[in-house]
Amino acid sequence: MAISADEKIYVRSQRTPLDAVTLEKGRIPASTSEAYRLVRQSLTGDVGYGAAWKLGGTTEVTQKIFQVSDLYFGALHESEMAVLPEIAPPFETFELKGEAEFAIRISSSAASYLDSAGELPSEVASDELFDAWCIALELPSSPILNLTDAGVVALLADRCAAGFLALGAARDFDETFSWTNKPLCIKADGQEVAEGGVENLLWDPVSCARKFLREARCQGYSLKPGQWISTGGATPCVPFQQGAHVKVYFDGQEEIAFSAGGGAGAD
Q: Can you state the percent helix, strand and coil of the chain, rounding each to 5?
């Protein structure tokens, strides 16, 4: 479909837009690789992008919604993430909702593996690639009203509905750590609103992170030590009321606590 001068291909390079948009077919990139390329080009020149990466397609729910069989990803700007924030998001967002996730940090010892595309050698141990992990609460926000119908390519062009990422305190990476039988729980104003765990992911968090390294390198993205990878919703994504006191628990321990900000853009 031809694109008129005032109907350009949609690519989100800014922080979460506040104006709703409905994407017709002609405004959506032609393929996943084209969406990744256009986003990558739009972010060039701002080194703040890639401070963290958010993954999708790591659960049966998202694979079914977007009709995919593997994970996909979006880049977060350094202003779209914080460790133990008091308010999250600290800026207006079109939507206000969140899901608890596991995040893993790329290690300085991984630098030599990040330049070439393709599969990581199987003999590369995960503790050479990653040096820390934490509990995270990812707060996605997309202004695309017909996002499900527009499909995964539109989602990629929207930086995977980038909103804000609240990170908990970092723990040292331990390749032998068991993620199973350790429940995740989100509470808002003292009431449990979501629960889950690693069993909601199609792959364990480390496998998700390794798969992301492969895919991001294949799509031409530059990865660096110190960047966080948030591995997808281990709980359902639930709405928050602005000002709600939100807490995330892992295996009974409080990991993150903040007041819900943002959200004004949807009013």
A: 25, 30, 45
Tell me the domains of the chain and their CATH numbers: 25-266 (3.90.850.10)
pLDDT band of residue 3 (cuts 50, 70, 90) is very low
In this prediction the pTM is 0.94
Q: How far apart are CA 206 and CA 203, in angstroms?
A: 8
pLDDT digits (tens, 9 = 90+) for 68-120: 999 999 999 999 999 999 999 999 999 999 999 999 999 999 988 887 666 67
CA distance 71 to 122: 19
Find residue 74's DSSP bridge partners: 54
Strands (E), the chain: 49-56, 72-77, 81-83, 87-88, 97-106, 130-139, 164-167, 171-172, 184-188, 191-196, 228-230, 238-239, 245-250, 253-260
pLDDT digits (tens, 9 = 90+) for 202-251: 999 999 999 999 999 999 998 999 999 999 999 999 999 999 999 999 99
Contact 229, 90 (CB under 8 A): no
Question: What are the CA-CA distances from residue 158 to residues 81, 89, 140 (Å)?
Answer: 17, 18, 11
- The answer to whether the beta carbons of residues 43 and 14 sit under 8 Å apart is no
The pLDDT confidence band at residue 265, using thresholds 50, 70 and 90, is low
Q: Give the 3-state secondary structure of residue 264.
A: helix
Determine the Cα–Cα distance for residues 194 and 62; give it in Å rounded to an integer: 17
Q: What is the DSSP string of 230-261?
A: E---SS--EE--TT-EEEEEETTEEEEEEEE-
